[in-house]
Amino acid sequence: MTTPGTVPAAPVPEGVTPALDVRNIVKRFGGVTALNHVSMTVLPGEVTALVGDNGAGKSTLVRCLSGVHQPDEGEILVDGKLQTFHDPSASRHAGIETVFQELALSDNLDVASNMFLGRELTHGPTRLFRLRHKEMETEAQTVLARYGIRMPSVRSTVRELSGGQRQGVAIARAVGWGSRIVLMDEPTAALGVRETGRILDIVRGLAERGLAVLLISHNMEQVHSVSDAVWILRGGNMVAGMRTADTTTSEIVHYITTGQGLT
Ligand SMILES: Nc1ncnc2c1ncn2[C@@H]1O[C@H](COP(=O)(O)OP(=O)(O)O)[C@@H](O)[C@H]1O
Ligand SMILES: [Mg+2]
Asked: How far apart (Å, rounded) are the C-alpha atoms in residues 33 and 86?
């Protein structure tokens, strides 16, 4: 078990309130402890990477933050305020949006419709139904332009889009509604080099606009180039959190595989 304070943790600068402050989260599935007293901070205006091997607990932590799972123990603070998420809409209400591994897009609908999909949960069905499609298209275009997300057209059917463009739609849907915290579970896992580069540019752009981004990734070079801080899970334990500038790709890999830093 990890005792708080015994592992390196990325410092929070004085006067900065973390967008997300996770304290001692425990999540068990039957006999499996997926998260064992896990703590982590995510600062506003930064990309925070969350890394670890398969089964380390990354997706479970994201699901606790997005209200899909309820932790057995521990606390989640959003902008310094203690929150309990009984369901995903509670997490959204607190300003957290999640781009899940399985993007949950509707293949038969166009880009604009997908960006409005599911909004009735947080904004009420009447608002959605009152919006005519033309207005949805205009608003969708505005959001895409704001974050530099390129699409053939907001009228393109999502089925016709490339993997990177589909990821772009999912990100636009997540950030287009004033959320301040975005969680992304392996957004580039299925993408080629060029599309990966585009998505990473978008991710950096979100942070530059002041959002707090939590990025799960398997790609250490990607983590090193895009993140401001990196947190490392191993077998359900948070083994380190560091400023990216203070570490190296090989040290991160060493933490992932052994739980220890380089000496
Ligand atoms: N819904 C679930 N039911 C049972 N066990 C689960 C469930 N979700 C995750 N686990 C287990 O929790 C551990 C962490 O899984 P996960 O969070 O998916 O890891 P990662 O995303 O880092 O690959 C694994 O041992 C996994 O089998
Ligand atoms: Mg996962």
From this structure: 20
Measure 189 CA to ligand 2 centroid, in angstroms.
11
Domain assignments of the chain as residue spans, ordered by start = 1-95+180-263, 104-163
The domain 1-95+180-263: what is its CATH number? Answer: 3.40.50.300
CA distance 195 to 179: 24
Cβ of residue 55 lying under 6 Å from some atom of ligand 1: yes
pLDDT of residue 63: 96
pLDDT in tens, 216-257: 998 888 899 999 999 999 999 999 999 999 999 999 999 999
- Edge-first strand listing for the sheet containing 47-51: 96-99, 181-185, 212-216, 47-51, 229-234, 237-243
Q: Give the nearest ligand 1 atom to 233 CA.
A: 22
b/e string for 4-36 if b means 16 or more Cβ within 10 A?
A: eeebebbeeeeeeebbbbbbebbbeeeeebbbb
For the CA of 53, the nearest ligand: 1
Distance 237 CA to ligand 1 centre (A): 13
Q: What are the tens digits of pLDDT across the range 8-51? A: 888 899 999 999 999 999 999 999 999 999 999 999 999 999 99
For residue 155, the CA-to-ligand 1 centroid distance in Å is 37
Q: Is the CB of 52 under 6 A from ligand 1?
A: yes
